[in-house]
Amino acid sequence: MAVHHFSPQRFFNTIGPHAPELRIADGDSVVAATIDAHGHDAAEAQVGHNPNPMTGPFHVEGAVPGDMLAVTIDMIDMSRRQGWTRQGLAPNVVDPDQVASLPPREKILWDIDRNAQRVSLRSAPESLRSWTVPLDPMIGCLGVAPAGGEFISTATSGPYGGNMDYRGIRAGTTICFPVSEPGGLFFLGDVHAAQGDGEIAGTGIETSAEVHFTVRVVKGKTQTWPRGEDATDIFTIGNARPLDQALQHATTEMLNWLGEDFGLDPIAASHVMAMAVRYDVANVFNPAYSVACRLAKSALPTRG
Amino acid sequence: MAVHHFSPQRFFNTIGPHAPELRIADGDSVVAATIDAHGHDAAEAQVGHNPNPMTGPFHVEGAVPGDMLAVTIDMIDMSRRQGWTRQGLAPNVVDPDQVASLPPREKILWDIDRNAQRVSLRSAPESLRSWTVPLDPMIGCLGVAPAGGEFISTATSGPYGGNMDYRGIRAGTTICFPVSEPGGLFFLGDVHAAQGDGEIAGTGIETSAEVHFTVRVVKGKTQTWPRGEDATDIFTIGNARPLDQALQHATTEMLNWLGEDFGLDPIAASHVMAMAVRYDVANVFNPAYSVACRLAKSALPTRG
Amino acid sequence: MAVHHFSPQRFFNTIGPHAPELRIADGDSVVAATIDAHGHDAAEAQVGHNPNPMTGPFHVEGAVPGDMLAVTIDMIDMSRRQGWTRQGLAPNVVDPDQVASLPPREKILWDIDRNAQRVSLRSAPESLRSWTVPLDPMIGCLGVAPAGGEFISTATSGPYGGNMDYRGIRAGTTICFPVSEPGGLFFLGDVHAAQGDGEIAGTGIETSAEVHFTVRVVKGKTQTWPRGEDATDIFTIGNARPLDQALQHATTEMLNWLGEDFGLDPIAASHVMAMAVRYDVANVFNPAYSVACRLAKSALPTRG
Amino acid sequence: MAVHHFSPQRFFNTIGPHAPELRIADGDSVVAATIDAHGHDAAEAQVGHNPNPMTGPFHVEGAVPGDMLAVTIDMIDMSRRQGWTRQGLAPNVVDPDQVASLPPREKILWDIDRNAQRVSLRSAPESLRSWTVPLDPMIGCLGVAPAGGEFISTATSGPYGGNMDYRGIRAGTTICFPVSEPGGLFFLGDVHAAQGDGEIAGTGIETSAEVHFTVRVVKGKTQTWPRGEDATDIFTIGNARPLDQALQHATTEMLNWLGEDFGLDPIAASHVMAMAVRYDVANVFNPAYSVACRLAKSALPTRG
């Protein structure tokens, strides 16, 4: 169970079957530097470019199509003291007849205070002079090479993961992807220091980071959409437009998962889901929106 | 500040400018019986009919168009020991090509245990033999007469409220509606003993109840969509299809509210919302879907 | 088969079970004045108000719930020489990030020339100096009282018809509605001198008119959504948001109609529809969008 | 102006910057064989595979990013006597609660009669015994390499074209794509012998063909979405889900085009579009839906 320290020499703006940058074994851990959505690294040097330059791909030995790749996020360390957002809400999240009154979407700087575990606006308007945000790092874009030989822009997402911008992808979360290419070819990047639901300003607090993660290959385990878990919940993610369809994908994946691994037929699963499901609107900004379907482990029946 | 005990003699399947059943004063409280979505009362007698028969309307003295009616839910008492759901997920919440594999949507009975504060399936499948759900009562349908002389089916919802089926409308919550008719004309009903996000089986645990609520008229306070608060959060609700549009309405209402009452211009509001907003998918089943946009009070800037 | 000349004394801004303004027999014809969407009549006097004031309701003797009411539009006569539109496209029909560049939506006057059968801008910009539009009158809003005792704003539409703003509702068209109240209670108004698909500026050329129509009761004929025909085609209309759902309603209604009246089972109907269906985007502006599903009569199999 | 006869040796299931299979000059014509959506050629031999194997790419000399590639479809010759469809409507085009009653989607054979210019079911049900369809060939999938180094599945579509399944892409049509890679890299395939709007059974009549086309490079001409024209109309195409967004893209592209090339500012363009626009629902089945926004040339103002 090796631990690899990986300093990327190049970055990718598509997720696809690029040649691996590092080969690792099932069970290995990696500490990998990521750069921000516009390509700036820990030293604020531009080393990659828009959109969402990816670190990787990591080839995981033994992963073949038909397997599942489980990635556990062990830690997300901030690697610089600064991040940025866009001001103003995105035009697609407000009523069309109010769009014309939105402010121009300028780039805004934030200071990241790792000691205080808070993030604050560098130049706050009067009304936000004493307002700060808890540091709560998440990975905006991560996934594996898609099926069918596609190379897909890191602006969007699909069954293979991608730019889901879900605040639930934080330290302590394990997320699983369907393997479509030998080695899986795992990519990650686009860390946010904090973000609310929906990424409704079109950004989180975009920054660079050092991400610690561990991979595991689950043999012969099929799935359609990302599945995952954290300390309290299991979850699935659907990526599509409109939100209705993203929610349909996430719901269907959960229904199928409860049948496969939790012994719940469609009737039993419907009772549990109808009473306990929680939906997170991960992003409602990217070309594909992302919805997570969550179930508290405490709401699941105990297994006989 | 009187407390009225109201036993409805008739029920309404449209929300609109019906003649008031009870006149109450600003600040008064009411203890009102509600019947279940199919019209069965506390004694399980059929006294109303599908869909969602309403108790009310309550005419609040002094409320006139241009005011806001704030309704605080003080308590929701279960008035019988039984509720029902439909089994199987609703066809519109799963992928279209998996709809044909859904089970038939039969009516299922649940036992409500007020002492244990749990609800359980009367005839559980093997896999759910020891599985129960916390009792967490909510009001599925409530609102005031809409603008323009409309009488709208209690199956759906709009700016005036209606069948939003939001689990956030529970004891301790205050919800505010725009007054469009003299007296506001408040209706309520369709209590659920418990329900997850989205009402994805098409029902919560449908039952009768005794609801304790208090009304307050806020003079000259305009709004477009329902606004509310509970112990921890403020929230707005948008009702529309698809989810994207419901989310747009809720987001726009929050943006406007932060400007009107919290001193946050569109730039400052965008910072707060981008970092702290939470969306609840209230229902994704009814003719209009409902999305709540929530902000923790702790995430709001302190006022100077 | 009487012909009634009807001069409305009052107008309605909701479609619902209002008391009839005129009782007519099955097979009768009516010549009825309609006023424009903002309530101006043939003399440009304001006699009704926004939105879409309706002429009617007409009670058709013998029509009872479970019947179908067929209305044939015999002629739409322009009753004045002027109409109006809004300039600028509606914000919901362009990409959200281009909304801010749309022009202000001012009211614009048009001249209706019945001799030339053309309509022209009263104050045309240089680029449209010699540009005119064929006069092609249509009825924007028409329908019958909805089910369940609802009174619904004439801004929107549903299974009962309403503000569908479909340019296919012109002279020579027959449209059929499901009867939900005794007498059906037929309303009409909101005539446009011309309009493209989608009503994408939010208006057609809004004007007053004299509409000649004939009613027929079809006993015991159920349907869910409006059905109709003209010289060349049969059609169904679905009203909902988003367009996808409006299209689903129209498609499902056509599928069912082909089964009921044309002897085509779901497989045969799918062949005919897959090869010959045409969709019209009637409106993509109102609270409910409208999509027509059309089949040329020449594309239907001949009956054995 | 050479004419190239191209017999593809390999086929592509992604559209992207693959190495060119043929280099041609600006103004050249090509006669190229295409195979059907499942990879069967004129001899019904399987030479490619699902989905939509592409002929090409064709590198057009002189085309560079920032140019527009105009492709005129000169002729679409049927290269075999047989095609196939799926029976039954696609589950996403009917109401969710009617999906379970759809027939199984079996593969069905059709006979193509080039002399009679008709297509007929090989084994017709009784109700369709004498029913045939006009031969009206169209190209289901065509486009150029997308921007950003993406390789995208031929199941879907985007600004670069792709699997739009639009019956308007027939002989006599010119369609223009934005060039993102040197040479443009044009692909085509997935010819249908006939198809209605929307591709609502999930297929047209899928077959092989010989397509005659001519390319032209328009220097320094930017656009976002495909533009085109035929004998009577100009058109734009938007590709996205839901239909609303596809329509927004097509509408916005037309608005911009009228400004750039027809001298119509947003106000003038809104008048023309509001009165004359026609929308075609090209496909409502693929991962991205396609909507065409059309204007009759006769409805455009004459240029001063």
Compact summary:
4 copies of one chain form a homotetramer. Chain A has 304 residues and is mainly beta.
How can the largest sheet of chain A be summarized?
A: 9 strands, mixed
CATH class descriptor of the largest domain in chain A: Mainly Beta
Distance between the termini of chain A: 34 Å
What's the CATH H-level superfamily name of the largest domain in chain A?
Acetamidase/Formamidase-like domains
Mean pLDDT of chain A: 97
N-to-C series of helices and strands of chain A:
EEEEEEEEEEEEEEEEEEEEHHEE
Strand order of the largest sheet of chain A: 1-4-18-6-15-19-20-22-21
Most extensive chain interface and residues per partner = A-B, 68 and 68 residues
Structural class of chain A: mainly beta
Instruction: Tell me how many strands of chain A there are.
Output: 22
User: What's the assembly state of these chains?
Assistant: homotetramer
Shape designation of chain A? globular
Bin the helical content of chain A.
under 10%
Uncertain segments of chain A = none
What is the overall number of helices of chain A? 2
How much of the polypeptide of chain A forms β-strand, as a percent range?
Answer: 35-45%
- How many separate domains make up the residues of chain A? 2
CATH topology of the largest domain in chain A: Jelly Rolls
Rounded radius of gyration of chain A (Å) = 19 Å
Can you name the CATH architecture of the largest domain in chain A? Sandwich
